[in-house]
Amino acid sequence: MFARVVFSLGLLSATAWVDPALAAGARTLQVIVSKDTQSLNVYDGGQLVASSKVSTGKPGHETPTGIFSVLEKQKYHESNLYSAAPMPFMQRLTWSGIALHEAKSVPNYPASHGCVRLPAAFAKSLYKITEPGVHVIISDRPLVPTRISSRALFRPEKPPAVNQLLSDAQLRPSTLDASLKPVEVAMNVIKPAIEASAPKPESAPLRILITRRGERETLLDVQDMLGYLGFDAGAPDGHPGQMTVTAVNAFKLWKNLPSNGPLLNDAFLTALYQAAGRGAPPQGQIMVRQNFKPLFEAGVEIRGPQIALGTHFIEAIDIDAKSGDTQWNSVSLDNQIPAAAMKRLGIVTKADPKDYNAAVNALERIIIPDGIRERINAALTSGSSITISDLGQSQETGAGTDFITVTRTPG
């Protein structure tokens, strides 16, 4: 890990250097920016390895807060928004124009047009050790990753045991007849354990988002179940097209449900899930991405749905390939839920992001289907991450991104 090579620390340090050959371990890095202190800290496996002053967006051009990742890197880039302003050692966080980059002026106060300005020497050094996918968390207050543990966390599959067959073994007879002699069993020779258990190269880390269900996720299930029951709603796409509307109304007619009001209401969803044999409608959704592309998603149950989950970022920083043990770090972010959203989601109690156990408490309220958990466990690698948020993914999430979560400042 990078923790073995420590940068020159100090919040106002503007220089840092790490051997670029170590960049293969960049998947366990976390970059955390505090707007309150105008500082950036780099963590590797939870250990602080570099710090620098920064300059974030000035009033009217505020830098958004939330959970981002490096989408693109360019040693030299010119702004498409601000008169081709130079942005050396640019590391893009959103396709709409937010990035980390070198700047000549990095005062100890907000002064940019939304990007995070870095001192020249630090920008170059940081550029050398990151890779696309490294997470960048921007918060108003300073955040420090905290080690957490819970049985609700994912756990990679243990490698299969090897060399446990017996060769030329003496087996005891099944009776106690003294005339019987020990039986010698010859068995095929197997390859040495070191060959049989040769490690496979790790795949790209998973990006996991757990959030409240939106209309799109619910409609995907509705379309699938209507098709299963013989009502042609078209291919499941999460959009209420004419075929879907017709199928929903046909089902309501079959179950003597009123057709006026919202297309998807509680009575309709309860009846549809029961008719399809799927129990109660889930309140949440788990979505998985890898290499900036969607993999799969599924509904999840949320215990105590009237209590906000909060916004949390959890990352697997170390995996023991032999035992399957995994170390996880987390940070919890401030995120104001608008009153209208709280009403729509049925939330009556807000989360406390400063609670030491906030991330674990939220995680343990989420019930993930066994098949989905097994699928994630099988693909889990170091650097895999979980984002939990009541408000879901930002509109910035799309083609060529990880899950982007933009938070709202309380106030």
How would you characterize this protein structure?
The protein has three domains: 2-144, Beta Barrel (L,D-transpeptidase catalytic domain-like); 148-156 and 200-213 and 282-407, no CATH class; 216-275, no CATH class. It is 18% helix and 25% strand. It is built from eight helices and 20 strands. It is globular. It starts with 28 loop residues before the first strand and ends with a strand.
Gist of the model:
With 411 residues, the chain is of the alpha+beta class. It has helices at residues 120-129, 193-196, 215-228, 242-254, 266-275, 339-345, 358-363, 370-379, and strands at 29-34, 39-44, 47-53, 65-69, 72-74, 90-92, 99-102, 116-118, 135-139, 146-148, 169-171, 183-185, 206-212, 284-290, 293-302, 311-319, 326-333, 366-367, 385-389, 405-407.
Based on the model shown, name its key terms.
single chain; 411 residues; alpha+beta; L,D-transpeptidase catalytic domain-like; 3 domains; eight-stranded mixed sheet; six-stranded mixed sheet; 8 helices; globular; disordered N terminus
Question: Helices and strands, in N-to-C order?
Answer: EEEEEEEEHEEEEHEHHHEEEEHHEHEE
Tell me the radius of gyration.
Answer: 26 Å
Taking strands numbered 1, 2, ... along the chain, how are they ordered across the largest sheet? Answer: 10-17-16-19-13-14-15-18
N-C termini distance: 39 Å
- Report the strand count: 20
* Residue share in helix: 10-25%
What is the arithmetic mean of pLDDT? 85
Structural class: alpha+beta
Strand content: 15-25%
Number of domains: 3
Low-confidence stretches: 2-24, 162-199
Major sheet size, sense and barrel closure = 8 strands, mixed
Net shape = globular
Number of helices: 8
